[in-house]
Amino acid sequence: MTKHGRRKFIFTSLGILGSGLLAAWIFRRRLVRQMLFTFSDNPTVSVTASPLETEPCVLTTKQVEGPFYLPSPERSNIVEDKKGELLNLRIQVLTHPDCTPIPNAVVEIWQADAEGNYSGYPEQISQDEWEMFMLFGKNGEKQSNGEYHVKQVTQTTYLRGLQRTDENGWVFFDTIVPCWYIGRIPHIHFKVFVNNKEWINSQLYFEKNYCDNLFTTKEPYTKMGKCPMDFPNDAVLAMAGGKHQGLLLLPHLTNDNKLSAIAKIGLMKI
Phi and psi for 192 in degrees, rounded to 5? Predict the structure, then answer.
């Protein structure tokens, strides 16, 4: 059985058998790591640098929602008490290909913290293959859209938020650079709603060299260290078979010495 086939088998088994029987079969963490979190390089995976403020928009492709989505509070500062590299994330929503700003669209983001943890879920599971596997088995459920979701376990809300775009299609979030966790390179999830309809669900990524430097020099990222994965063997990107390009953020220092990044989200003309 190929690695891709083993992954499909495990995720299917989670839904059919539940955690108990499957856990009895897979009884070692090493086996879980090999079968669930080891991905073959996919050379067709590619990412597109997000256009700068003065550059034309590009059509943003859909990506999976992921298992850790929860409805977010309306706010621009989503850091709460989390430590990490502060980042001012500026997102502009536009129609494609004419790049006309879309006002009053709702942009929602969620992400991991500097140790790979998501709010709403037990901390440290993102570094423990077995605990994550058991959480998926116990609290996971397949949704009507075919995606896998894990039910909320804790009441924490850090690093989740939503905002409405202004007349020029912009929203602003104060956040931190996310860290990696098992199977995933650093990324930020986002959704865009237009006229109360979800228009796109996708993810933003960071350059590996930038992350490797940050994760080996600044606490608390140093607890995790360099990300052992790259774009070709990221769990989501590799399994997508190169069908969905990622959008790459390029953090830079502003004139007031603050870290900022821009994402221009191009939506098919509405």
Answer: -125, 130
